[in-house]
Model the fold of this input.
Amino acid sequence: MCHKRRGRFRGGVPTNDGVIRYSHPHSHPRYKPGSAKGPAENVPLPVVPVEAKTASKVGLEAFAEYWYETANYGYETGDTSLTQAVSGPECETCANYFEVVEGGYIGDDWMANSAIEVLQVHSDYVLTPDGRYQAVVYFRQEAMEYYGPEGLQLEGEADLGVVQLFEAVWEGDHWVAANIATMNVLDKCQFHPENPDC
Done:
């Protein structure tokens, strides 16, 4: 897997105490999304919500949303380590996601857009016979774009609405994604039935 990292402290000056300080006290590396001009830069690291650290309905729902935030981080950086850390070996959708990102960052290639926006997460928080808890996640995703030094290689289609069943297990002190299955993909006519093309 090829991970292309940009320095998160570009422009900073290291000091004897190990703290990196900037020449301008209020200046910070500015986030720059990926585009045809190049890969994303200074992508903020997702932070695990406090709620996601609890074995509860609220904890599961917060964890599910965090999982998709780590997926977005991978799309923008090529680094899927955060998602891998909270995904179980039996999660086939997780493995497919890792392959997609790895393929998008071969050599000098990169991805742009692709962002997932979680719109709603709900769980009844009932333990299944498989020892998992389930949540239903509703989101939309931008069209995936794949770039290389020569320019645009491939562009997918945006998903206006996707419903996924998100299953997770509580392992001691943290959640782990065990299975993610797509239940429904809504098209533009389901969102905008008044569209003359529908």
Remarks:
- Confidence is low (pLDDT under 50) at residues 1-25.
- The CA atoms of residues 127 and 151 lie 48 Å apart.
- The first strand starts at residue 12 and ends at 14.
